[in-house]
Amino acid sequence: MLSFGIMTMRMQGEKTYFYEIAKRAKHFGMECFKFIPSQFNPVSQKVQGERFNSQTDKWESAEFLLPAILYDRCFYGEDTHSSQCKAIVKWLRTREDLLFLGYGLPNKLDLYDALKSSRLSPYLLPSKPITSGKGLIQHLNEDSPAVIKPLNGSQGRGIYYLEKTGKEVFVSTQKQGHLIEKTFPHYDKAITWVNQLIKDKNYLVQPYKNLKNKKKKPFDIRVLLQKNENGCWEEIAKGIRVGKKNGIISNVNAGGTITSFEEGMNGLPASEKEYIESELQDILTSLPVILEKEFPPLFEIGVDIGICKDQAIWILDINSKPGRKVALSINPELSEKLYSAPLLYGKTLAKERGFLNEKALSSRNSS
Superfamily for 108-125+212-320? Predict the structure, then answer.
């Protein structure tokens, strides 16, 4: 029986998603495990984690050899434990006896640098690293607000809007669904704040784009792309996230709501709707191909796309470990497809690499 392992930074993270995958594993001739990379013992070549018991329908503590197929769902921060886990996963990727569903993407700035010379460059927001508070505030123009965000951020956390007016600097962000605003009366106060912010975490700066609807609510389009069991990319779902009035992000975790793409496009003139759909199709068809030319193979991609009032379209974020909240909210019938997809694609990879014919690999966790 093939062994399928889910790697995570928290054993209690993504509980529903991991459980739904695990309970389907037996149907595909697989046994499912989950573990934190730092629990791997290089001496014994075993890892302490949990094995899914299909008879009791529960996860159980266990020690086991590394599963042959690995699904990396680790969300790394910039802490010591994240660095440790990242190093272990990087090493595991070099092993020929292991199959990764996907190899992930680099941070936002490295991703931007890799794509800015591609045909998608017109859709990318210019991005630069923040090296000092002084440099950021000095280059902030009064008529051009900016947004700063963590290089390794996710779920809209740590994003700030900055605007300079005279000698003042206005800053706003959203935390736990609440809009927090502050005005620094002098540049030096703002510089000190930025320096403190970037002391323990790397940030980038981008020009601010007004991505709000007529009700002054931020919105974006979230698209989930995924490989099917034949290894071909498919658009699984496309929805619209709408944030709180006067907010700066539309993330659901920050209090945003979800509607279907079709519903969100209702009311637009036919020509405008046709233009947006054509541009989106071009982006979504090109993106996976370009990414896999620049980086190792992927399994899934979450893409966030913004639309300005002038119909300018921007790629806001590309995530190789996307969630499924938008997809399941607009189409609950997708659940079976979403929960089975990692197992189906994993089995395809195993067949391609001959893992199904290697007894040593297929029975690696039988002891």
Answer: ATP-grasp fold, B domain (3.30.470.20)
